[in-house]
Automatic annotation (TrEMBL):
Domain of life assignment: Bacteria
Keyword set includes Glycosyltransferase: no
Organism: Halomonas gemina
InterPro entries: SRAP (IPR003738), SRAP-like (IPR036590)
Family: Belongs to the SOS response-associated peptidase family.
PANTHER family xrefs: ABASIC SITE PROCESSING PROTEIN HMCES, DC12-RELATED
UniProt-recorded name of the protein: Abasic site processing protein
Length: 220
């Protein structure tokens, strides 16, 4: 799954990668981003709108959903294209969540040990996501997850869908709506580029948000 991530790369660095001229919602460095908060995303509000970096709510609940409908933070790659709750957004409202890393937890001696997972070269990563307009008119998103690969499998059975650089434009292409066409065009970042290390359990509390959270534990 993906339930916590970090984004400390600055807006110009992120916007340059996508060739964006507009950042509607600049952000400050965050080292412990939880669900149920506003996060940056690259998206188009409609097919004719330019691509922008804007804020989305991390929690997916379309405006047409019943009051008691769920508000998931993740959507699985196995079901996102076929589930009635997600398939409209998968076809027409895809977005990218920029991140520097994500956190996951592994059981060690009866305790949950957090790990920091990122690219080996420390370049930002791009998490595939979908969004829908919420009842208040703002966009809300869910980050896609897939079975864990490479070293990430030792930490958790699932991981966010991290796209490779060549997949960013197709993922954001509003004309690409067919599931099979997308499947052929979209590729995840090779597992060999992912590394991880254990970090302080301070990350378990969302009130903690500082650079020390991503430092390796002593001895690692």
């Amino acid at each position: 799954m993906c339930g916590r991530f970090a984004l400390f790369s600055d807006p110009p660095r992120i916007s340059r990668r996508l060739g964006l001229s507009e950042v509607k919602a600049p952000w400050q460095a965050r080292y412990n981003i939880p669900p149920g908060t506003w996060i940056p995303a690259a998206l188009r509000r409609d097919d004719d709108s330019p691509l922008v970096l804007d804020e989305v709510w991390w929690g997916y609940k379309p405006h047409w959903a019943n009051e008691d409908a769920p508000e998931p933070i993740n959507a699985t790659v196995e079901k996102v294209a076929t589930s009635n709750y997600f398939k409209g957004a998968f076809a027409h409202h895809r977005c990218l969540i920029p991140a520097d890393a994500w956190f996951e937890w592994v059981a060690v001696d009866g305790q949950k040990q957090p790990h920091f997972l990122c690219r080996e070269d420390r370049e930002p990563i791009w998490l595939a996501a979908i969004w829908a307009e919420r009842a208040d008119g703002a966009p809300g998103c869910a980050i896609l997850t897939e079975p864990a690969r490479g070293v990430a499998k030792a930490i958790h059975p699932r991981m966010p869908l991290v796209l490779d650089d060549e997949s960013l434009e197709p993922w954001l292409d509003p004309d690409m709506t067919d599931r099979e066409t997308l499947r052929q065009a979209i590729h995840h970042l090779s597992a060999e580029h992912i590394t991880h290390w254990p970090v302080s359990s301070r990350v378990n509390r969302v009130v903690n948000d500082d650079p020390a959270l991503i430092e390796p534990l002593s001895g690692h």
